[in-house]
Amino acid sequence: MGGDSFWSSDDESVIHNCEQNNLCTSPHPNITLSDSDLDLEFQQRTTQHVRSQVLRTYHQLHARCQSSELQHAKIRILSYSPGAWIQKPSDAKLTDYDIPNTTTLILVGPKGSGKSTLLNRISKVFESGKFTPDKAQVSYMPSNGDGTYFLQEYTIPRDSTSFCLYDTRSLSDCLSDNDLMLKRWLEKGVRHGEVVIRNTDDSSLKRRLQSRARHSFYNSSMVRKVNFVIFVVNGVSVLKAMNSKGAATTVQHYNQLVAAAFRSPYLSFRDDKPTLAVTHGDLLSLADRVRVRVYLGELLGIPPATQIFDIPEIDDAATDLVITDMLRYSLEHADKNLPHKNKIVKNYAKIQVMVLMCVLLLIAMGMSFLQKRAHHGRGWTNHASKPDLRINWHEIRHLW
């Protein structure tokens, strides 16, 4: 996405031809179109315009790499602190918000999407360089590998407390499994070392995971609230599903799974949907990478030029710059959606009032019970003699 490793004169001509064609698609003024034709014309022109915008991002990225922008972008990310990028109203203060000690981003995606690889690539951008050892375990063959079963927390950079990324278990083909898993993470938080077991896992896998969790893994006591989500997809798998024809197949199911999980209400923060990272673009042509981004934008309802980030497995300045763009977008939206303290205090006050009312009610019930018991005891003493409860053993000796 910039640099000699992927940019060529052919790519320049692709951009030039697309923009020229986009300018030549103006409707003929002397032809009257029907409503359906107008709708189709509008849709085609919109798609062409979006495709031109996406192409332009690659051109701009190529130009940005020629400047010192990458270094400034790194410094901006490294100087981040939780809440620093809050978009607050003019009458609000930073102290009005519930700001976490560490901003937490989680990576979510289907199996083989490249979450662990992406995490290692992000780490190398902000540490000693491309020779930095990998942090996350990567499956060499995703179809045969175990993948990530335990939640893994990685601070960026190492030993920093500003923000962290969580590598998670891949999405399941079972939508109900995904709903339960995403709901647990987004509502209850994530914890380093926690094993992720699905309802549909077979019994042998569940036993192996439980054994590994007991004997060979460290569980952190720190539960972190998720502040924003980075959704990761494999660009090659998306393109295969786009090109597949005929009846529904396993290949086509990939895009359906992506759409269903991405639209989960648990992944959205108010009106903000997750950041989308597209991996394995280095295996595709520039034209196909543009097609994938435009298609995903239409499928998921997000702008492909600004919310979808093409991150190939290439160690170059362009990829580093896209990674910093993706992190900046994610951290800005994490800060944007931080909860307001007033709401938290108000809810806490309501809980306190309810607890106090329950305690007072229990005290009142207890006092009423004691008064009735005391009154009943006095009535027995004044109006009737207590029965003789002594046992006459002589009269009942025949029982034994």
TrEMBL record:
Keywords from the UniProt entry: Membrane, Transmembrane, Transmembrane helix
Record-linked Gene3D superfamilies: P-loop containing nucleotide triphosphate hydrolases
Transmembrane portions of the chain: 351-370
Protein name: G domain-containing protein
InterPro entries noted in UniProt: P-loop_NTPase (IPR027417)
Organism for this UniProt entry: Kalanchoe fedtschenkoi (Lavender scallops)
Origin: domain of life: Eukaryota
